[in-house]
Design brief:
By secondary structure, the chain is α/β, with parallel strands linked by helices. It has helices at residues 11-30, 73-92, 98-105, 120-134, 199-207, 210-213, 227-240, 252-263, 287-292, 304-314, 317-320, 323-335, 351-362, and strands at residues 36-40, 47-50, 55-58, 62-66, 96-97, 143-144, 150-152, 155-159, 162-165, 174-175, 184-188, 192-196, 216-220, 244-247, 281-282, 300-301, 337-338. Strands 10-7-13-12-14-15 form a 6-stranded mixed sheet. Strands 9-8-11 form a 3-stranded antiparallel sheet, with no helix packed on it.
Length: 368
Amino acid sequence: MSKIFIKPKTKEEVKKSLISIGNKIWNDLENEQNPYLEVPVRALRNIKFDPKQKKLILGSAVLKRYLLHLAQIRKFVQTIGVTSLSKELIESNKHISLREAFYVLKRTIEGTKINVVDEQEESNKAIEDLELIINALREQLHINANKLGAVAGNVIIRDRGDLIDWSKLGSGGWSVPSNVEEIEFVKVDADFVIYVEKSAVWERLHEDRVWEKLNCIIVASQGQATRGIRRLLQRLHYEHKLPIYVLTDFDPWGIYIYSVIKFGSIALAHISDRLAVPSARFLGLTGDDIEKYGLKKHLIKFKEIDEKRLEQVRNYEWFKENKKWQRQFDMMKNLNAKAELEALASRGITFISEKYLPEKIEKNEFLD
């Protein structure tokens, strides 16, 4: 069980941080000084892997962004615009989407023909900068992304006053929102969590009621886990001591999905403390499974992009010295092909639920 965890800021702490930005700028102006924001540098050169914490972290490099600077004023104003919007949202207890935030900020500065933002990419980056400045999640600023994920299990939560039972939501399960910060866990009856790379595989596990038979929680996205799902996994792990297992294809892309859940991502290294689960383990297909379950005839030949991605992933610092993982990468390279979880259906429609998962879990056949 990983122990290093930083508790996220409370709503009041986030609000105070936003107000302090405004107060500092006001004081600078009153003292006839050029207001500036200190923004941690998000470039690759300022991102490091901490082997002790087993996660990607942001370094200490920062840059100063000034109001009275021709090349910086636009980004300065955009960041302040997001700061003001977030304070308003928190005070009114309202949430908006990234797209809505873009339209709120896309207004013309009085007396000019210049918009605060012209493209959503600009508002998105301003939101990310504010995350860095006050060390809080975007969702804590009341700005959410689209929903993309599902969950099922013996869990009851309270979400905005409503009691929701994850075991009684039909074939679709509970739709995981972007913001899971204020969800209250009323009851959690599970021994572990399985994150599934593909929604189609999740549907198979759900129909087979794997969450009930194995007393676990099954969670899925479509490909890379969303921030909301990663935060949900982390909360279940730290708050309820549940091990996290990641079920993906045997290919560089699936292993990268596992890597992001476990170690964090380069793009979001500044919030690894609130997203990563360093003790997460890999439950997905391996080169050994291909032999064991006779899946060779179901392999999909690598394309050039797959070969390049394999070399990138295997040379990540956190994989480079791991002999067990290097063995898997060697097997993948020798096969020059990938295997999808759906290939297990060739052994029977419910094979993954009735044999593959129970056996691997019982025998502790995980990769770390």
